[in-house]
Specification:
Elements: H1 2-19, H2 24-33, H3 38-58, H4 61-66, H5 69-92, H6 95-114, H7 116-126, H8 139-154, H9 159-169, H10 175-199, H11 205-225, H12 231-251
């Protein structure tokens, strides 16, 4: 039963991530249901969805190659640093504290997903930079980038939406470029975070490998379904699952 739940959750997460995102709303609760403690479940969930970021990044190879090399290098460094810092923060968080904040993290991530368009519009209205710039030279922008990537290393839920909002605030307007950077930085910071958590022994590898395979298959299925299902229906499903899991963890 537990293996079946993990396989189904990871498969559906692969589909959701390929279409609209929000796969961690399924993988994390499924691992907790299977008896994995909350902190290792968070680490194992990050491993389960990690491979999908690379294939998604390669789909925007042309946009990434055209991006400013200096800015990309700085974003990469900050992503690695944030991924490690987030993982270290997770490691020093007690189980009781993490169990207390998990419902809030799920709820915030769900709200971010539900209002991502409004968030990105607000970010664009606050930005004074041109669409061609998107630089992060100022201390404030470097700090904001580090905070976002640290959040990603600590808790992956809603990371994509926050990154897109960040890029809008940096003055970016090209959605393909923003999606490419979002996937690329998610892969980089997740690699740093996953490596740190694995070295700390927080990853349940048997569950992680099972879910990685199922999520990869789900990703291929999601690419096909993306052409059939209206995006607003998939988004509604993700939001419903997110709120449902938030309520379940609050009650728990």
């Amino acid at each position: 039963m537990e293996i079946m739940v993990l396989v189904i959750a990871a498969f559906m997460a692969g589909i959701l991530n390929a279409i609209a995102g929000g796969g961690s709303f399924l993988t994390f609760p499924a691992l907790v249901f299977a008896g994995v403690p909350a902190i290792p479940a968070n680490a194992t969930s990050a491993v389960a969805v990690f491979p999908g970021y690379l294939s998604s990044t390669l789909g925007f190879k042309e946009e990434l190659l055209s991006y400013d090399r200096r800015a990309l290098s700085l974003l990469t460094v900050l992503s690695i640093l944030g991924g490690v810092l987030g993982a270290l923060l997770l490691m020093v968080t007690s189980s009781s504290v993490f169990n207390f904040i998990v419902p809030w993290l799920l709820l915030v991530a769900t709200l971010l997903f539900a209002f991502d368009k409004s968030l990105r519009r607000w970010s664009r209205s606050e930005s004074t930079e041109s669409a061609s710039e998107g630089q992060i030279e100022s201390i404030g922008k470097k700090t904001a980038t580090l905070v976002v990537t640290t959040y990603g290393g600590y808790f992956n839920g809603g990371l994509g939406i926050i990154l897109l909002a960040l890029f809008s605030g940096l003055g970016m307007r090209d959605m393909h470029m923003m999606n490419g950077l979002k996937n690329g930085l998610s892969f980089i910071l997740s690699a740093a975070s996953v490596t740190t958590l694995a070295l700390a022994g927080l990853v349940y590898w048997q569950e992680a490998i099972i879910m990685m395979v199922a999520a990869t298959i789900g990703g291929y299925a999601g690419a096909y379904l993306a052409r059939l299902l209206p995006v607003h229906i998939v988004r509604a499903i993700v939001i419903a699952v997110g709120f449902g899991m938030s309520i379940a963890f609050f009650m728990r």
